[in-house]
């Protein structure tokens, strides 16, 4: 009885090891209207949304990947570009981030110049230099 219990518990740990999947949190930032929601929706749902509304706070999207046989979960944090929809939440966005994606609109130079403010926000929230961006 004891040995069969041991056997089933070790089977359990093997199956949990096999199904374990690493999750990577990617923060998506940039000016309002540059296409963050469209980009993340396209990546996760396989198509562009018909219409979007300004993001309030943050929207979460996930994409499962298989990289070299390992299951990876990409967790995209689509954040609001409008200051009034970010408010005091910002510091939470930067917690345990694995990578940051800066987005700008190629038809809008101001949104490219605006990236300096987003880089500065990263600095203010103590984003480490080792974090890919
Ligand atoms: N022409 C064109 N329009 C786009 C593209 N990507 C997004 N749009 C349009 O741009 C508008 C804003 O797109 P969103 O994805 O909502 O922008 P956002 O950066 O998430 O905006 P916030 O939520 O306010 O930060 C929408 O009307 C989209 O349809 C693109 O690649 N080409």
TrEMBL record:
One Pfam entry name: Ras
PROSITE patterns (UniProt xref): RAB, RAS
InterPro entries per the UniProt record, alphabetical: P-loop_NTPase, Small_GTP-bd, Small_GTPase
Keywords: GTP-binding, Nucleotide-binding
SMART domains xrefs: RAB, RAS, RHO
Protein family membership: Belongs to the small GTPase superfamily. Rab family.
Name the UniProt record assigns to this protein: Ras- protein Rab-33B
Species of origin: Goodea atripinnis
Gene: RAB33B_2
